[in-house]
């Protein structure tokens, strides 16, 4: 069976950092698929084989595959494996792919919302000084991404992970770890070519996060819950609006 790592099957030393590893693995698999090493209908190596071939964790492989799935390159069949789709056909109707991605983003947000509202309240009651410092550090890194005009997805996830850790209930952290990068919506609320609006949107997210972490720092359980609810339900509303736009359902004047 073929094992993909630049189509060589060799394990390479990779840079540290889950985000960069996911990008590297995803790009390697993407090149192999688009380059014809795997034809539509072919099954990719198993998760364990990909883990060994790329020298990364299963979480990294799962996140890389999630990205390929959202791009319409592969599908995961329960109990059967990962199969290559006809990527030429998948690009015929990009709006359909966008709707599928948006729907998936919304489904994850709906599951996250009640859990993370509870997590914010518990973090306000249980966080240690070190955990509080970790939350503020993640928040500062997210702001640095905004100011450098970089993607905030990794920093966003890290902040929510830090809040989950501050509950001192490992199940909250395990939930986010299980979803990995896909816990953070991949769809763009604002087009990348609208730089000013992108920055404004990212700053809105930053302010929503700030309300959550200030309440946690103050030990204000009620306000922490309310702020997290505003943030995640606000995200749901933004993505529902975008989904309606893609479906051609405008708001009534």
What does this structure look like?
One of its GO terms (molecular function) is DNA-binding transcription factor activity. The chain is mainly α. It has 2 domains: 18-90, Orthogonal Bundle (Arc Repressor Mutant, subunit A); 94-246, Up-down Bundle (Four Helix Bundle (Hemerythrin (Met), subunit A)), CATH 1.20.120. The chain has 10 helices and 2 strands, in the order αααββααααααα. The protein has helices spanning 18-34, 47-54, 58-70, 87-90, 94-126, 129-147, 153-165, 170-179, 195-217, 221-246, and strands spanning 74-77, 81-84. The chain has a two-stranded antiparallel ribbon. α2 crosses α3 and α5 (94-126) runs parallel beside α9. The radius of gyration is 20 Å and the shape is globular. The chain starts with 17 loop residues before the first helix and ends in a 7-residue tail after the last helix.
Task: Indicate the topology.
Blueprint: H1 18-34, H2 47-54, H3 58-70, E1 74-77, E2 81-84, H4 87-90, H5 94-126, H6 129-147, H7 153-165, H8 170-179, H9 195-217, H10 221-246
Antiparallel strand pairs: 1-2
Helix pairs in contact: 1-3, 2-3, 5-7, 5-9, 5-10, 6-7, 6-9, 7-8, 9-10
């Amino acid at each position: 069976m073929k094992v993909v790592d630049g189509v060589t099957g060799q394990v390479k030393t990779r840079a540290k950092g889950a985000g960069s590893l996911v990008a590297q693995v995803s790009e390697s698999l993407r090149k192999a698929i688009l380059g014809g090493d795997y034809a539509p209908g072919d099954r990719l190596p198993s998760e364990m084989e990909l883990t060994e071939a790329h020298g990364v964790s299963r979480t990294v492989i799962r996140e890389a595959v999630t990205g390929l799935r959202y791009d319409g390159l592969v599908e995961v069949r329960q109990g059967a494996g990962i199969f290559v789709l006809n990527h030429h056909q998948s690009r015929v109707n990009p709006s359909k792919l966008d709707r599928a991605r948006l729907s998936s983003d919304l489904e994850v947000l709906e599951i996250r919302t009640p859990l993370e509202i509870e997590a914010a309240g518990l973090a306000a009651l249980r966080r240690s000084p070190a955990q509080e410092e970790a939350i503020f550090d993640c928040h500062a890194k997210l702001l640095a991404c905004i100011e450098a005009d970089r993607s905030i997805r990794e920093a966003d996830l890290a902040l929510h992970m830090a809040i989950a850790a501050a509950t001192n209930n490992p199940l909250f952290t395990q939930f986010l770890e299980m979803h990995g990068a896909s816990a953070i919506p991949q769809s763009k609320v604002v087009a990348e070519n609208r730089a000013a609006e992108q920055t404004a949107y990212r700053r809105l997210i930053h302010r929503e996060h700030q309300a959550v972490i200030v309440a946690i720092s103050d030990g204000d359980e009620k306000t922490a819950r309310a702020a997290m609810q505003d943030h995640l339900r606000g995200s749901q509303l933004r993505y529902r609006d975008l989904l309606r736009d893609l479906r051609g359902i405008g708001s009534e004047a």
